[in-house]
Amino acid sequence: MSTSPPATGEILIIDDETGVRMVLARHLGEAGHRVSTTGSLTTGVAMLQGLSFDLVYCDIRLSGQSGLDLLQESHSFAGTPLIIMMTGYPSLETTRQALRQGAFDYLVKPILADTLLRSAALAIDARRKEEERKRLHHHLEAVFDSVEDGLISLNPALTLVAVNRSANRLCGILPGDAGRSLSAAQRRCSGSCLVFANRAMTEGGKVDGKRLTCFTNGEVEQVVSVTATPMRTRLGELLGVIMAMHDETHMVRLERCIDRHHRFHRLIGGSPAMREIYRLVETLADLETTVLILGESGTGKELVIEAIHGQGRRRGRPLVKVNCVALSETVLESELFGHVRGSFTGAVKDRIGRFQEAEGGTLFLDEIGDISQVMQLRLLRVLQEKRIERVGDNRSIPVDVRIIAATNQDLRAKVAAGTFREDLFYRLKVVEIEIPPLRSRAEDIPMLVEHFLSGFNARFHKTIHGLSPEAMAALMNHGWPGNIRELEHALEQAMVLCRGEVIEREHLPRELRGNADPERTRGKAPVERAQSAEREAILAALAACNWRREQAARRLGMSRVTLFRKMRQLGMNEREVKA
């Protein structure tokens, strides 16, 4: 199977060493890229403000200036180039600073040709995908602004009376099919919408069918939502049923496309803090350095470890997890390093430990802050020597294991108090990833809610579509001391108690009902607090639905007309909504 050649682009190199500029430019030029160079950061900034580039390679040390300053000027550039920093003097601090300020990558000199070309291909491909995502957004808006619903009119015998052009396009039904049965006229699907037409006539009321797959051929081809409404004369005589069909295919496909930018392995969230974690995970995945994961209980530290392991070259080998706080010192020692027969009472046979189980893979040490001083020393030796000794054995065994540790404690404070070894602390924290608490990334709550509702709907065999504005406001204003785990449990309770299709405030746990974060609502009157919470819930739903009001209304459990009315009452204009 043939593959398309790698994309080429406009590249700017900023480096005060003429030889470096010439070599990099030659390699990139031979690969088909169009390359400009300069030895001055000031000149480079001026070029970027006047010309559009796809990618910039910039040295960190530039004749008394710092190339990192380029990242701070990126808001003024003509285009949106990705920036790769280069240095001959690598350090962890500059690496973290560059990635934190938005650098796409960080290369250490001397830069091999293969490394250079691979970084350029990855960066330009990432930029092209971002541009494509934006084009998809614009396309989706254009389609949904102009599309008309398909209309199919049927008599009581489910014989076609009339169809419009949109129904012809959606269903393949022709105007000449009038007089035929709907099942006979449908050429491209199994006729699943007939179920809703029958129900509308037998039940005597409107029936909705959400996101039906009309026809498939190995993958989803077309998705529509159907509303079937019985038609009656003024005297109540049944004339038949009319079906309105709304094409949601583009929305479903775009949601899947957008979802890839809001999810990373099992991590969910599109907030800046979560996107920064995704970037760090991708950067660290193939590095052999130890990583320390920090964060409150329930923030998802274990999911970050799974992402690092699953993204890296060790993903084909075991990921072994050990909860250090759940085991006593003696048991933990045997659990980690293994033991030989007779080494202690009950050791009836040799047993390998978790280090050997994780050979070639990753060992995750959870709650590392709770291990004893003795275990801290043994673990430090393993990190230094890459060898272990089983309990009761004097032979050392080499191990190839990557260590990732996690804790919800302040290890620096424990080091200062003398309860945690300083040398082990610095061995573990070569790179730190701090998982933000849920209260500091509240914009991710609607996505998390949608994720949990989907799972609970399948588990409890329910069809709950979303939360009322009041329920969503309660979630948005809660402090979440238990973080994502608390949110999951709250929604599980709400799903059990809810008997309709929308979760209301009274279905939530007691501590969430009417709850508001005092920092957000302090000093406001009750009416103002309610309006503020409702405004926040609407903005959150709009953001989660990429500002499509019809979809946001469904998420909030209300009609589009009701949503428009509430937005007017709250004084929410178009400019504010998309700000």
Task: Summarize the SSE layout with pairings.
Blueprint: E1 10-14, H1 18-30, E2 34-38, H2 41-50, E3 55-59, E4 61-62, E5 65-66, H3 69-73, E6 82-87, H4 92-100, E7 105-108, H5 113-146, E8 150-154, E9 160-163, H6 165-171, H7 182-185, H8 194-203, E10 207-216, E11 220-232, E12 238-247, H9 249-262, E13 263-264, E14 267-268, H10 272-284, E15 291-294, H11 301-311, E16 319-323, H12 329-337, E17 338-339, E18 351-352, H13 354-357, E19 362-366, H14 373-385, E20 387-389, E21 396-398, E22 402-407, H15 411-417, H16 422-428, E23 431-434, H17 445-460, E24 466-467, H18 469-477, H19 483-497, E25 502-503, H20 518-521, H21 526-544, H22 549-556, H23 560-569, H24 574-577
Parallel strand pairs: 1-2, 1-3, 3-6, 6-7, 15-22, 15-23, 16-19, 19-22, 24-25
Antiparallel strand pairs: 4-5, 8-9, 8-12, 10-11, 11-12, 13-14, 17-18, 20-21
Helix pairs in contact: 5-9, 10-11, 17-19, 18-21, 21-22, 22-23
